[in-house]
Amino acid sequence: EAKETQHLIDPFLLYNYYSSSYYFYYYYYYYYYYYYYYYYYHYYYYYYYYYYYYYYYYYYYFYYYYYYYYYYYYYNYFYYYYYYYYYYYYYYHNYYYYYYYYYYYYYYYYYYYYYYYYYYYYYDYYYNYY
Question: Residue 102's pLDDT is what?
Answer without folding.
Answer: 72
